[in-house]
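New to this. Explain these tokens.
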Amino acid sequence: MRRPANVSSPVHLPPFQQLLDEHARDVHRFLTATVGPVEADDCYQETWIAALRAYPRLRDASNLRSWIITVAHRKAIDHLRARARQATPVEHLPDRPASPAQEPEHAAHIQDGLWDRVRELPPKQRTALALRFVLDAGYEEISAAMGTSEDAARRNVHEALKRLRTEYQHD
């Protein structure tokens, strides 16, 4: 008996635990590089919860690593956007609002390490750099995870490295 043309054949998915076992370390390393070590654990848990919910509906199991990194990337973006919307408590209100370019007083302490500087990069550059050098992902995988072209993935890595080199030379 033939299947109707509009019904796709079921995708064979490995058990979810196998996906978790194979990619847990890479997901955590990527999130640590992207959002920082403190927030990485929360994003990590949110990534796997979202993946567990979506897993049964997955239509293509050909590249599960890229799929789970894409989920992690989206959770990192959600986290960074939520963090940007949070108010920063202060003891006294200033007479005038601070300009967006001003940094908090403790920012000088944060800028000591390389990954702190990476986290200051624009989100697309930061993500591309983390995928490339933390997970050793190729440009095809970076483009799949970020939903961009391979040329855009290459450009994001290039611009991130250029910016990091420039900032380190001025220190």
